[in-house]
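Sat 14:20. Reprocessing the chain from the morning session after the first attempt stalled halfway. Input below, unchanged.
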Amino acid sequence: MTRLLLRPFKEEFGDIFDRLKRRTEVVDLTAMATQLLRAAESRQEAQKFRCQSWLEPPNVRDFHQLQVHTKLRGTCDWIKWNPAFVKWIEPSSLSASDRLLSISGTHGCGKTILASSIIEDLKSKQLQTIFFYFSGNMESLKGLNGIVRTFLWQFLEDTTDQRSLELFSDLVLKGPPAVTDLVQVLKEIAALVTRPVYCVIDGVDEYIDECNDSIQNLLQLVLGLLNANANLRVVLLGRQHVLQPHVLQATIGATPERIEINSDLVREDINAFVGAEIDAKINSDLLRLPGLRDSISKMLREKSGGMFLWVELMIKDLSKSDSQFEVQERLRNPPHSLEGIYRHLFLRLIKRLDRVQLNLARKILAFTIISCRALEVNELQYAHALDSGSITFKERLLLHPNQSILDICGDFINIKDGLVHLIHFSVQEFLTRLEDEWQYSNDREITCFRVDLEPSHRSLGSACVDYLGMCEYGYPLSDTDAFLKLSKDYLFIRYASRYAISHLNQAGPLCSATARKIRDFLRSENYASWIEYLAMLVLEDGSITMLGDEFARFISRLDMGEYKRRPFQNDLRLRLNQELERRIRTFGEQDPRTEQWQSFLHIIHDETLDGDIDEDSNHRLPNQIPRIMSMEESSLSHISNALLHNPTLPLHRQIDILLRLESQLRRVRVLTDPLKMLFRIILQKSHAIPVYVLLVVGNFYERLDKWGEALEVYRVALAKVEAHEMPIKFDILHTIGCVLEYQERYKEAEAAFRRCLEGRERLLGKENKDTLQSAYELADVLTWQKRYKEAEIIYRETLEIQERILGKEHEDTLHSAFWLANVLNWQKKYKEAEIIYRRTLDRQGRTLGKEHEHTLWSAYWLAYVLGMQGQYVEAEALCRQTLETRERIFGKEHPATLWDMYQLAEILRKQRKYQEAETMYRRCLEGRERVLGKENPYTLECSNELAGALYDKEEYEAAEGMY
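Finished this time. Tokens:
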């Protein structure tokens, strides 16, 4: 289904969502893999088409053609004779620095038109050219994923080498790849090209990396391509601040050739552009007035500073003139920069618009800037109306939205193919500046237009939630026409469903009003059917991974607002069960709508519904699904055949089959003959099965405690990706290490974790969360082997990074600190251990609570090291406090409580409080005999220590009887 449903709280939903997410991806990827294998027997063009269908690269071709048509004939010719460019075309050496060229310039200086001109010129010479345009206004054109998919497709589209297609086919067969997987295959395909390839990358200043604020990852991609093939050349175009020589030097290892666009370089182009724009956009009657055309042309040429965008905006403003006087007034003291002209235009807007229009302008600009993709005109129309919060929002819908948007914001907004765009990314940067950057007097007058990102996201996210509660969904999985019909009937439903959580994630702490809306929606009858619709939506557009990440982030932030994680958990559990009860009552048990929901609940039952319930909740939630329906095992054969032999199942059938298969597997607790046969066949044909399917099988064996079988499957899966450096390879290694650790095969587990750690450090970096988890697990198995010094080193390194990246009070940080203190303790470095235990205990008390299990264990071990240093009074007080808490929370015979009793007895004995020690030893012994048995080693140890205490009291007969 979707992470939105299956991962509402990371601790409980993480595992199951990952498995279910893979099921949904397996449908498409199994189909795609089957098609690719068959395509090897047909024409290459068919295979390429399928590659494009799977990759879904951003459409940069249309954008490129738009730039080509916009370019004036005869402009951009200066680049052809530029020495740096000529050298790049035919480099004197094959070093990476000689094959890289950077072209930088300010906003609006024509870099994108220049990029399109370079591309067209190279193509006219029959040179292989691949290209990409970054755009901060479009989600698919912001990051690394977009450029990698685009370059992959452009290479595959032009290739006649079957090996390139096979490399990509192999990638698809392994399952859904991460960006790093795609990058690796891109490098391998690039390495196969035998003729010169020219890569043109525009807008690198608009590249956005989710992990950091630099273009480091993009430059690493460029360097990887340059190193993969000496026939490859790359030109980067962007603003100066991201293409500084020292930035490129740090990555490339040398300073490449660079061209900085200035007014002298583009003077002739500016002159031509000014003339063409005046003739095209200024009233011809005005231009016939003596000297007026020359005055306009002279001012624009002299003041432009080489910025085509500035000229375009000025002429657009001048075109509104209806008299010579108006033209002359607008020419007087023109603004000298883009920021200046934006201030000028917004001041004009303030004077022209009334209060209602100003509010509309603010919302249009804000929502256009923060939208997760380009909004359709109708979507922007609904977003604005819904933002009012009124139940009669339809009264606020614009009757002529295109006209209204352009009349009010036409200086800053374009509408093309029904989509709303900013005229330039610089508008966004101008309006989203920090508050202290709006210091000019003119800025203070137009501050009302400043886009404060968090409140804007909150407004749009809230509007999305409102709209979702208004729609009538029906039952999309049961009605083949419902999915398309919903999008036609509810014009804002696709955007609101897909991006509500994205906006709420960027909206700061969850406010009470939004929390109430979310609660009300979860409790509405629409909620369940919306789940079905969203499942189909994310399966259709391939956004399940991104949506899952967004929802995980949303859940992790719940405790920052007024809607806490636990109430959210309870609401969700309650609604899931109530919906099934409602469907049983309304439709009956055998109805597809009931069966699909039943299957869905089977999938999440183990991970969610059996979890802890909030004691303060007003609801008492059932621990069982209301009713378990039967599903014959013979249906497994039908399901498997449907998945393997029907690669083009409609969306509602794909999800239905996936739910049923997952439901069946989750209910099986023993290996029946049909399942044994099915999994035996899967292992035998593992070479043709996506790696994710094998991971599903391995996880199934784990649930049955068949660790040997699980390990066998995981090793088969590892063999499929062994030759590649990709995240899934190291995920499998990590899983193998965990299975081996569970089997107490610590040496083998150590080897797996070491390989995993080394690979993740290379691929993801030392500060990645997965890398840190591998380091932690490696230290753990070293600890089990009593190799405390080695474990200490790793724990220290991990802790230092976690404190810096996650913060000193993050739960993962505290966990590492606790185990570092433990290995110091077990090396008898008691003073060092004490310091860390104290610090950890203090932070756990603040963040987790004084009665949390982790906090109590830190207190236990702090008391231990205090006792080992002879600080018995403090140790005793801490022991008594911990024992009292555990007895109250867990009971007097809980194993942890018995350990507290034992330690308190030890400390009392060391203080020669023999009578009190004897009493505590006897309590501990009686408890261990009942809980663990009389022959348990811990029970026998307690008996021996009791005898020792009696001996210390000189009760020798009693002591001898204990022995």
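The mean pLDDT is 80.
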